[in-house]
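Q: Hi! First time doing this. I have a protein sequence and I read that you can turn it into a structure. Is that right? Here it is:
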Amino acid sequence: MQIWAICLANGTGVWYEPYCGRDTSIEDRELGQGPNVVLDLIRKASLEAGCEVFMDNLFMTVPLLQELSSLGIAGTGTMRQNRLNKVPLPKKKEMEKKTVARGTSMAVYQEDRAVVVWRDNKAVYMASNKYDAETRSSCKRFCRVKRASIAVPIPAMVSEYNQSMGGVDLLDNLVACYR
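A: Yes, that's right. Below is the predicted 3D structure, encoded as structure tokens:
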């Protein structure tokens, strides 16, 4: 059984919605199942303007970000390449060529939304209506060629996502441990 959940950064559950296939009581806003789940959980958990949500690639789409912007809620998450629609970013195969250096990023902005592709070990696609794609910091990664840790530039939205997405992971871990 699957359960959709919205939780805090410390793993505390705010709202749970059991997934029952077609019979799941989620309002259809014609944005697809993932975005509908996010918007329904936000409504049921009574999140207000100024709140911030993080989600993985099952839920994130550009139309979802537009809807979140209209609600005044910040959204950030990883994206699947096939959900980019016509966003002019390089394809995954192009970004994963050996000629593309680790830490390379490219972004597209529209109004308050940003979509970025960042090269880590693999290409990572992300979108946000709060964070930009500027690389203000770096992260440590192991380089097999140099056999040492190197500093890799990381976009702000990727850094914030990595820090904030831990709540869902913690909730999943707690559920697995204390079934």
